[in-house]
Design goal:
heterodimer; A: 322 residues; alpha/beta; Rossmann fold; eight-stranded mixed beta sheet; four-stranded antiparallel beta sheet; 32% helix; 23% strand; globular; B: 330 residues; mainly alpha; MetI-like fold; 2 domains; two-stranded antiparallel ribbon; 73% helix; ATP-binding (chain A); nucleotide-binding (chain A)
């Protein structure tokens, strides 16, 4: 049984003009110790999916349907307090901006000890020892001294290391990392990704890595899910999706990555932009921009079907005649 | 930290010197003090003698210097009206005002902060919305109107609380306190409530607004993601971050409370410094007015300086840290 199973997840936002569907019928699994990359343009529903899993959708956003199961147990319908006990203890999260994720008025040590003691029955002294251990674990030099310092005394990269320590210090088995390196210097990004990968591997923790950086996905993830307009376009092993994308959208994404080489090719650009949630076209949401579009694409909404090692939601693979 | 303290104290001294100068000018321009001292039919020569004796013919700078030195020793001269040292008059009236202001300030904090938190955490609750409307009324009604309404309801109609005076007081050394007698405490309720009402609503609305702002912050979202209990998130993480503006406004308003005490003391016939000041204005009793001005300014300056020091306690980012000079660490 997979560690996390998401089945037909729907995230809705009731507005005055009707209900908007930000995440529409998304299903995927995350296995024990696996790193799943989630990519897509801004507004594709990547972060929203992560927020739904950890139970932190901002109101009025709500789960409108489907199930989320952790270890086979449903967690999408838990009471707020039961869900709180899962956050941090079973599912950890890391957000985009390490500069603002830490409370400026408490020392790094206080925040670590507080998190550890919320979830694990432990004396203050033991928790402190463990917290210092975690600071060392995420590569912070002189952890005993750093323990008593405030976030503003750390650099951006160091703060993101602290954030990782905070997310992992109660030993959750799943980490949701929502663009963990976007706010950091390029030179620091690779270190943070490597660190995240190492601590997950060492603890056999799984991770959902939300990003729009294909390089990060290629280097870190085992499998990758591609989202478009709130739907899953394609999911499969990284090597497969990156090298032989099945969905025309994924192919377009891959084509738009600049490559360094002796004879640089012209960059492909996907024409147009992602539809707004208020006017998603009928049939396949990608149809206005798809280079391989045909008549049925405007009528039938494709389901996710197994293609090669993975799965794609495209009528090309449904045996619909062109 | 030490440099900061010295700089802050120097600023405070400058402010006090400026205030003293204004107080000093009152003596020169609110009538001729000699007129107030000599009898009406004194000759010009007698007048000049008095002027010389009091040093009023010295250059202005010297007179100002003398005024500042005397004021620093607590000597503001003699009241024109009842011929007693001004310092003694003020000392007599200080406890009444101090106790009134202290109780009002505490009330505004003890009620204002929890109400602000409550209305921020349950913004759509019926009670919250009721409190918001009440606070709007509280913030817009003039205090003397609420004072008179309070007297009407609690003294005239219900007859529960006295409508004027301090009740019985007990002397402890030179300090007379109303805290130790039942009638003294009862007499405090209405005036302190009237005095704190504006401050109370201000603090409540401020805490609410700040709290709503802080609850949207990323570190609150991350605290939730860490699975912390709501209590810890609201009262540890969020509240501490809302306190800085609250401390600022509270400091400023504490001075305002002392100033507004004049109105409260007038409405409730409270024998404090404000009432003394109103009398002094009626009789152009310049030494009392000058002393009151200097004293209230001194309290303002002391409060503001303490508030600046308090920031350092609350916010670690403001503490000067020698290790930061060597770079941002890491």
């Amino acid at each position: 049984m997979a560690l996390l199973e998401v089945e037909n997840l729907k995230v809705e936002f009731p507005t005055r003009k009707g209900v908007l569907t930000a995440v529409d019928n998304v299903s995927f699994n995350v296995e024990q110790g696996e790193i799943l990359g989630v990519v897509g343009e801004s507004g594709a529903g990547k972060s929203m999916t992560g927020a739904a899993v950890i139970g932190l959708l901002e109101p009025p956003g709500r789960i409108g349907g489907g199930q989320i199961r952790l270890d086979g147990k449903r967690i999408d319908n838990l009471s707020p307090d039961e869900m709180r006990k899962i956050r941090g203890r079973h599912i950890g999260a890391i957000f985009q901006d390490p500069l603002t994720s830490l409370n400026p008025l408490f020392t790094v040590g206080e925040q670590l000890v507080e998190t550890i003691r919320t979830h694990l029955p432990m004396s203050a002294a033991d928790a402190k020892k463990r917290a210092i251990g975690w600071l060392a674990e995420v590569g912070i030099p002189a952890p005993d001294r750093r323990f008593d310092q405030y976030p503003h005394q750390f650099s951006g990269g160091m703060r993101q290391r602290v954030v990782i320590a905070l997310a992992l210090c109660a030993e959750p088995r799943l980490i949701i990392a929502d663009e963990p390196t976007t706010a950091l210097d390029v030179s620091v990004q690779a270190q943070i990704i490597a660190l995240l990968k190492r601590v997950c591997r060492e603890r056999n923790a799984a991770a959902i890595l939300v990003t729009h950086d294909m390089g990060v996905i290629a280097e870190t993830a085992d499998r990758v899910a591609v989202m478009y307009a709130g739907r899953l376009a394609e999911i499969g092993p990284v090597a497969h999706v990156l090298q032989k994308p099945s969905h025309p959208y994924t192919a377009g994404l891959m084509g738009s990555i600049p490559r360094v080489g002796p004879r640089p090719k012209r960059l492909i650009q996907i024409e147009g932009s992602m539809p707004r949630l208020t006017d998603i076209p009928s049939g396949c949401a990608f149809n206005p921009r798809c280079p391989k579009v045909f008549a049925e694409c405007h009528r039938i909404r494709p389901e996710l079907r197994p293609v090669a090692d993975g799965a794609a939601a495209c009528l090309l693979y449904e045996g619909v005649t062109q | 930290m030490f440099v900061f303290l010295v700089r802050r104290l120097l600023q405070a001294v400058m402010v006090m010197l400026a205030v003293a100068f204004i107080a000093f000018l009152m003596f020169r321009y609110l009538g001729d003090p000699v007129n107030n001292i000599v009898s009406q039919d004194a000759t010009q020569q007698q007048r000049e003698e008095v002027r010389q004796r009091l040093g009023l013919d010295d250059p202005m700078a010297i007179q100002y210097g003398r005024f500042v030195i005397n004021a620093a020793k607590g000597d503001f001269g003699v009241s024109y009206r009842n011929s007693r040292p001004v310092s003694a008059l003020l000392a007599e009236r200080l406890p009444a005002t101090a106790e009134l202001v202290l109780v009002a300030a505490l009330l505004s904090l003890v009620l204002g902060i929890p109400l602000g938190i409550y209305t921020a955490l349950k913004p759509r609750g019926v009670l919250s919305q009721g409190l918001q409307i009440m606070s709007l009324i509280g913030i817009s009604l003039p205090t003397f109107v609420t004072g008179i309404l309070l007297i009407l309801v609690f003294s005239v109609w219900l007859g529960w609380l006295p409508s004027f005076g301090r009740g019985d007081v007990i002397d402890i050394g030179w300090w007379s306190t109303g805290f130790l007698t039942a009638s003294g405490l009862k007499a405090l309720i209405l005036p302190s409530f009237m005095l704190c009402l504006f401050q109370l609503t201000l603090i409540m609305r401020l805490v609410r607004a700040e709290m709503l702002e802080v609850l949207r912050a990323d570190y609150i979202k991350f605290a939730k993601a860490r699975g912390l209990k709501n209590r810890a998130i609201h009262f540890r993480h969020a509240l501490k971050n809302t306190l800085i503006p609250v401390v600022t406004i509270f400091g400023l308003q504490l001075g305002g409370l002392i100033a507004f005490a004049i109105i409260t003391e007038t409405v409730f016939q409270w024998p404090g410094m404000g009432a003394l000041f109103i009398q002094a204005v009626n009789f152009t009793d310049v030494p009392v007015m000058a002393a009151y001005l200097v004293m209230v300014s001194l309290i303002f300056v002391i409060i503001n300086t303490s508030v600046d020091l308090l920031y350092n306690v609350i916010d670690p980012r403001l503490r000067t840290d020698p290790t930061r000079a060597s770079g941002k660490g890491a």
